[in-house]
Design goal:
pyruvate-formate lyase- activating enzyme, rSAM_horseshoe, binds iron/sulfur cluster, iron, 15 helices, rSAM_sf, metal-binding, 30% helix, Rossmann fold, five-stranded mixed β-barrel, metal ion binding, alpha/beta, 24 strands
Length: 497
């Protein structure tokens, strides 16, 4: 028996947000195990730690950089082979630091399959890509699209999520496209003279700078975008709907990359070609059909503003009215935006939010404070941009603190939280509070979650229920009565749709 430990976003094993998210990675691992006929169970790391029982056998851990404390605690209970994958291995030193048997870097499908077939003896794995040992790695490379299409996530594995998150009420992420086409480099670090000599693909940089926004590891870890086959996505969604999943997120660093790699390959330009509207239309129309047939709700995860125009917004509006969509603005200052490697200007991001709002979607805007080169002027402009997106109708403004991630251009930068950073954070809290107050008195459709809680079906803050505890997965109507915090509102059940 193997154990898949899902530590994604667990942090110190006390997740405060994203409690209703079931990521795509652990189900992909489960799919590989199923294809080899191997028995497994899957657990959230918090449940594993709560049980506190020793496990003997092979453990496959999926984690992000921030989850190292939770992983370190879990490892104390494991006696056997320990393999780790996910964004946490962008720091290759994690394998030695945590005394693991093996790490899998970037795209791990081929590597994991081979390890399961051959064992963890390094001498038998020399030709297998993306393996991280305590004292070195095999060749690190990206999958070809053909290799990528060979693997399918498990549907049944979702049923292991029966605590928090619970599969009957949580957002289950279905990967539709992997990675991001922003292969520009942050101007803060590059010499423009050398840039001019670069080949157009820009996969490798002669100056040794990882691709993408300076704070993001996605293009470096996963390479140019690759879309899944429509049929395989639809099969997975139908399977999930049949086992009782009620909320599906079509996931990817940018949904608008879907099908673009069929227009140009490798795809390393975040602007041209335009999104593949035919591929997007075809996928969304079929998912929409399944959603009506099985009664689940769906949304897309992110969109890059550089790919949003009138046509794109109209198409998304046709299938995704009243659903949320995440747009990164990050800084309000144009110069700063170029320095950090953004694929578009703040003005374009604000315009994208406006277009999507007008098309009937509910954009969430993202900003980052304490980025390298943040100064009084850029912070003031960021606050201005936050006000603009709020006035245009962005439903939520999320501000993250800059974290220097391994494998990014900014990995060696120090975080300096100053008075300007605090102003940015406080302003977001204020704006979000105003937006949430507007919810008071509204009736929203929600799905009952463990405890006396519910999640709004089409996105929004968690609702604490004042009257009763419906069965998990039951669809209810809730009247919002109070705003408790930035993340929580209260309401009472007033019916079933
Ligand atoms: S932040 Fe977004 S646009 Fe920038 S590299 Fe990452 S995924 Fe691409």
């Amino acid at each position: 028996m193997l154990l898949i430990l899902d530590a994604l976003a667990a942090g110190k094993a006390r997740r405060l947000s994203s409690l209703d998210v079931i990521g795509a990675g652990p189900r992909l691992i489960a799919g590989i195990l199923e294809s080899l006929g191997l028995e497994y169970k899957l657990m959230r790391v918090e449940d594993f730690l709560k049980k506190g029982r020793k496990f003997s056998g092979t453990v496959l851990i999926s984690a992000m950089t921030m989850d190292e404390p939770a992983v370190a605690r879990a490892l104390k209970l494991i006696d056997g082979i320990k393999i780790i994958g996910g964004p946490i291995t962008s720091d290759l030193g994690v394998v030695r630091r945590l005394n693991l048997d093996l790490g899998i870097w970037g795209e791990g499908e081929i590597s994991l399959r081979e390890v399961l077939l051959r064992g963890v003896d390094p001498s038998k794995l020399k030709d297998v890509p993306n393996l991280v040992f305590r004292n070195g790695t095999t060749k690190l490379r990206y999958l070809t699209r053909e290799e990528f299409l060979m693997f399918k996530p498990s549907v049944n594995a979702v049923k292991f999520y029966s605590t928090i998150p619970h599969y009957k009420c949580s957002r289950v992420y279905v990967e539709v496209v992997r990675s991001c086409s922003n292969f520009r480099r942050p101007k803060l670090l590059v010499s423009q003279d050398i840039c001019r000599l670069c080949p157009s693909e820009r996969i490798l940089c002669p100056q040794g700078i990882p691709p993408g926004c300076g704070y993001c590891s996605i293009p470096y870890l996963y390479g140019p975008p690759k879309s899944r086959d429509e049929e395989s996505i639809l099969d997975e969604i139908e399977g999930l709907a049949k086992v009782g999943v009620r909320r599906i997120v079509l996931s990817g660093a940018d949904f608008l990359e879907y099908g673009r790699d069929l227009l140009k390959n490798p795809l390393t330009d975040p602007v041209s070609p335009e999104p593949n509207l035919d591929a997007i239309d075809s996928l969304l129309s079929k998912v929409s059909y399944l959603s009506k047939k099985y009664g689940f709700y769906f949304e897309v995860e992110n969109a890059k503003p550089s790919l949003v125009d009138e046509k794109v917004a109209k198409l998304l509006g046709k299938y995704l009215k009243n659903t949320t969509i995440h747009i990164g603005v990050e800084t309000g200052d144009e110069k700063h935006s170029e320095l950090i490697g953004r694929p578009c200007s703040p003005e374009e991001s604000i315009k994208a939010i406006k277009l999507l709002k007008e098309a009937g979607l509910r954009p969430y805007a993202y900003f980052i404070h304490s980025l390298p080169e943040q100064n009084r002027r850029s912070a003031a402009k960021t606050i201005e941009a936050m006000r603009s997106v709020f006035e245009i109708g962005a439903e939520k403004i999320t501000v993250y603190r800059f974290r220097p991630l391994p494998g990014t251009a900014f990995e060696k930068f120090k975080v300096r939280v100053d008075a300007d950073s605090r102003k940015i954070s406080k302003y977001a809290i204020r704006l979000n509070r105003v937006r949430k107050e507007l919810l008071v008195g509204n009736v929203v459709k929600a799905v009952a979650a463990p405890g006396a809680y519910a999640y709004p079906l089409q996105g929004g803050p968690v609702i604490r229920l004042k009257n009763g505890k419906p069965k998990i997965g039951e669809i209810i109507e809730v009247k919002i009565t109070d705003v408790v915090s930035d993340r929580l509102v209260e309401g009472f059940i007033c019916g079933a749709p």
